[in-house]
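Predict the 3D structure for this chain.
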Amino acid sequence: MFSLLGLVILLATSHELWLEYYERPIQPQKVGLVLKSLHCFSMLSNGRKLLSTKSGAVDNLACLNGIRVLSTNMDRSLPHVLLSNHKRNVQSLDLPRGE
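Done. Predicted structure below.
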C-alpha cells in the first residue's frame, strides 16, 4: 500500500518538475481530472505550500502557523517540565544512607 502511495507521489512530483523544466505552466482549464488529482500528491507544490511563510498567500495553509507555534513552545517547555518532575521524584525517594 505504501509503495503504491510512494509511486503516485513520485509520478506527481516528476511530472511537475518536468513541466517546470520545460517552462510549461499548469493550466487548470486544460488539465484533465486525472492530472489534477495526480498533482494533489506532488511533493514540490505541497512542500512550497507547507514551507511558505507569506501571511497573505493564497496557497498558504494558515493553520500551520498555529501548529508551528505550538510545536516550538512544546520543544522549549516540555524538557523543563520533564526535568523538574524527574528531580522531584528523585528527591522523594527514601534511599538507605550508607553508615
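The chain has two domains: 1-52, 62-93.
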